[in-house]
Amino acid sequence: MNKIRIAKIIRTVILYLLMQCPVADALTDATTSLDDHSIYTSFNDFNTRIRDGTISKAEARAELSGKLAAIRAEYYRRGGRGYAQTEWVFPVAGYSSKTIEKRGKHGFVASGYDFFSGNSHGGHPAYDIFIRDRNQDNRDDRTGRAVQVLSMTGGVVVALENEWRQGSKLRGGRYIWIYDPANNLMIYYAHNAELFVKLGMIVKPGDLLAVIGRSGLNAAKHRSPTHLHFSVLRLTGGQPLPMSVYSELQRAKCLSKPPYPLSHE
Fold this sequence. Notes:
Blueprint: H1 2-20, H2 22-52, H3 57-77, H4 103-106, E1 127-130, E2 148-150, E3 155-160, E4 174-180, E5 185-195, E6 202-203, E7 208-212, E8 227-236, E9 239-242, H5 246-251
Antiparallel strand pairs: 1-8, 2-7, 3-4, 3-6, 4-5, 5-7, 5-8, 8-9
């Protein structure tokens, strides 16, 4: 009888020790990570349906707020935080607001835009930030290097497209959507050559997101100068509305390169 009791005690101790070991933690983290990631893949699929017009505007409007609320809660649970505008970074490394489109209101046209129209939306609720690339090889003419796209704010990557091919009618090409829960913003970085982020990745101001390219229906055409298409939408009453951020871009910190490695939180 004593041997049976001793065996039970030993098994209990071993089980307790296993639950405290790094392997158990790793398994728990992996499971949590997989569960968390489903939130972002679901939103990315939702965004793609809006983009491609395979979901009605009414249905998309009804679902958007709930999906973002879940992502907001998860963002803070994982340690995400807000960043004041004084910490914001100009989204193109080595450049400044001087290279933004100069024509009428710097190319920003909110009229006619509807987020729920997806790839068929009107207007141009964005700023085109041009780089020095006369030969259109996606590299800076002075340095011969690719030009890095940096996150302006903090937030989390909620949607992206990395499979764009020449001839595609997709206007944004290889794009990234970042949701900034603290400021209630959705930020769009389009026409990239290569992306360095994944769905669900938390980013800080200045984090490396991509390198500028010429992907997208019109951006790929020879007549289009190489640029980053940069757009900020503020969520108002569940509706993502274009936000004019030219003054914020003028005040943003200009960096020659990312100040620290990309966050993998």
